[in-house]
Design a protein that fits this description.
The protein has helices spanning about 20-25, 45-50, 70-75, 95-105, 145-150, 165-170, 180-195, 210-215, 230-235, 240-260, 260-270, 280-285, 290-305; strands at about 5-10, 35-40, 60-65, 85, 90-95, 115-125, 125-130, 140, 160-165, 195-205. α2 (about 45-50) links the parallel β2 and β3. With about 325 residues, it is of the alpha/beta class. The termini are far apart. It folds into two domains: about 5-210, Spore Coat Polysaccharide Biosynthesis Protein SpsA, Chain A (Alpha-Beta Complex), CATH 3.90.550.10; about 215-305, no CATH class. The model is unreliable at about 210-215 (pLDDT under 50). The protein contains 13 helices and ten strands. The chain is globular, with a radius of gyration of 19 Å.
């Protein structure tokens, strides 16, 4: 029987999480799916734990370490289902995750991207429920203004997304040259071209614990970010897209400013509309990086202890 869903899991050194992640998939109430785990050259016990699973729906693909985008693309290339779901190896689904997608796909078949709702775990005991602008809590259906609705919390979060395989066939997969924000860029490309629908179910626990730690250790100058300039023509006629892109231009510009990279900072800010750069954020660019670095570390520390805030809104 052809699976209704192909679940793509990129795996690289997630021995702490992979068992629970796979358990949450195989415990789904909707059972017609395949699981494609792309082992991206793991060097810990991830592969050993993975190979302990005995389920005919599980397919393991082995490749040398090439990054998460290549791993996801490899998974999509081997997917048999019409609908492709993504799950990072440290996130977890509730048992109704795939059922929620199936129900919404049945009711709203004209969409090509479907999004479940999610909560974000920022500390051991702190979970943040995410809301979206102009989308009611119990609303199910097509998203009227994807980019406006994503200005505070993103409607499309990787482990909460399902796409029709037409997308992969028509526009390809994730950009393997991008090392930071590759998923963000992919959802932008999709949302510009295709309809998106959202379910009314909160089915994902997004693990921000490790990401919160790793963010402070990652040097932005060693990362390749999305080329936002590729969307210049679209943002001229879509005010919500313009505001959404400017939000991320500012976010990355601030990271470069903190890293002391004034050239990249100016390059990003020159395309930001003045009305989209809030006063409290603008002030930060006047402070030297020697002051901002400890403040950023403090922000990460507070978030890891359950206190979250943003300077971008």
């Amino acid at each position: 029987m052809t699976p209704f869903f192909s679940v793509i899991i990129p795996l690289y050194n997630k021995e702490k999480y992979i068992q629970n992640t796979l358990n949450c998939v195989f415990n789904q109430s909707f059972y017609n799916f395949e699981v494609i785990v792309v082992n991206d050259g793991s060097t810990d016990r991830s592969l050993e734990i993975l190979e302990e699973f005995n389920d005919i729906r599980l397919k393991i693909i082995y490749q040398k370490n090439q990054g998460v985008s290549v791993a996801r693309n490899t998974g999509m290339e081997n997917a048999k289902a019409d609908y492709i779901c993504f799950l990072d190896a440290d996130d977890s689904w509730k048992t109704n995750h795939l059922q929620a997608f199936h129900d919404t796909i049945t009711k709203f078949p004209d969409a090509k991207m479907y999004c479940n709702r999610y909560v974000t775990q920022i500390s051991k005991n702190t979970f943040i429920k995410n809301n979206f602008i102009d989308i009611e809590e119990n609303y199910e259906g097509y998203v009227t203004d994807f980019f406006k609705s994503s200005l505070i919390n993103r409607v499309a979060l990787t482990s909460a997304v399902c796409i029709h395989n037409d997308i992969f066939n028509e526009i390809g997969g994730f950009d393997k040259t991008i090392s930071s924000g590759q998923d963000l860029e992919y959802w932008i490309k999709i949302a510009i071209k295709y309809k998106t629908a959202i379910t009314k179910n909160n089915t994902l626990i997004y693990n921000f614990l490790d990401e919160n730690i790793s963010l402070s250790k990652t040097h932005i100058n060693n990362k390749t970010i999305p080329k936002f300039s590729q969307f210049l023509s679209e943002e001229k006629i879509n005010k919500s897209l313009k505001k959404f892109l400017d939000l991320y231009r500012i976010e990355y510009a601030l990271k470069y400013h903190i890293a002391g990279n004034s050239e990249r900072t100016k390059e990003l800010l020159q395309n930001v509309a003045s009305e989209n750069l809030k006063s409290k954020t603008k002030i930060l660019f006047y402070f030297p990086s020697i002051i901002l670095r400890p403040l950023l570390n403090l922000k990460h520390y507070l978030k890891s202890n359950g206190i979250d805030f943003t300077v971008y809104h």
